[in-house]
Amino acid sequence: MQGQSQQQAYDRGITIFSPDGRLYQVEYAREAVKRGTASVGLRTPDGVVLTANRRVSSPLMERSSVEKIHKADDHVGVASAGHVADARQLVDLARRRAQGEQLRYGQQIGVETLTRSITDHIQEYTQTGGARPFGVALLVGGIEDGEPKLFETDPSGTDYEWQAAAIGGDRDVIQGYLEDNYHDELDVDGGIELAVRALSEPEDEVVAAEEVDVATITTDDETFSSVSVDRLESIIEEIDVEEMDE
């Protein structure tokens, strides 16, 4: 009974390591991320593309109510996978941090600095009793000193910088497609097309325009901008034509 009690302690308590040095609650949070619909981010020489699958569970649900991509500041966007409510809390934190930088110093916050603020907050919840880790991963993309930047956050509180990355369900398949097809000479339009193709890779057909949410931040204006459904439809039509010709 004592051994079972100890096992339950490190299985349920975030502040207790297992005998093999693992934090099970963090690993469970990663599993929550895998159960979410996928998001893709990629960096091009002239901007960052954030793309998210926002499939709905019922035809009666308003698709616009599914929030997967958020504006954190004029020059920074965030895409999420996992628990939407957890993502909303972290996005609100990012917005407050960005506003504080602007009010205190009169300048935009750096993308890496903002990401580190988010992951520092996430990490606190991996060693605080009576709390649980955030069951969400984020892709934070934007422009810093004229250069596109893209970071991923993990439920452990670790951040990674990427050229192209996928989070959420079917990550391995989507990431494999990105690794095979990404190149650093893509423009923003090419990045959108690649991201849509990558999100479609686990499916038998290209995703529909209304099932995808896309935002860009370009080096020209350094401004977060959502991509219209009409533009997405034209990109998806081109993908369909190319696949029929192959």
List the helices and strands and how they pair.
Elements: H1 2-12, H2 24-34, E1 39-44, E2 47-53, E3 69-73, E4 76-82, H3 84-105, H4 111-124, E5 136-144, E6 147-153, E7 159-161, E8 164-167, H5 171-181, H6 188-200, E9 212-218, E10 224-226, H7 229-245
Antiparallel strand pairs: 1-2, 1-8, 2-9, 3-4, 4-5, 5-6, 6-7, 9-10
Describe, in plain words, how this protein is organized in 3D.
This is Proteasome subunit alpha. One of its GO terms (cellular component) is cytoplasm. Its main location: cytoplasm. This protein is α+β, with helices and mostly antiparallel strands and 246 residues long. The protein has one domain: Aminohydrolase, N-terminal nucleophile (Ntn) domain (Glutamine Phosphoribosylpyrophosphate, subunit 1, domain 1, 4-Layer Sandwich), CATH 3.60.20.10. The protein contains seven helices and ten strands. It has helices spanning 2-12, 24-34, 84-105, 111-124, 171-181, 188-200, 229-245; strands spanning 39-44, 47-53, 69-73, 76-82, 136-144, 147-153, 159-161, 164-167, 212-218, 224-226. The strands form two sheets. Strands 8-1-2-9-10 form a five-stranded antiparallel β-sheet. Strands 3-4-5-6-7 form a five-stranded antiparallel β-sheet. Strand 1 and strand 2 form a beta hairpin. The longest helix is centred in the middle third of the chain and has 22 residues, at 84-105.
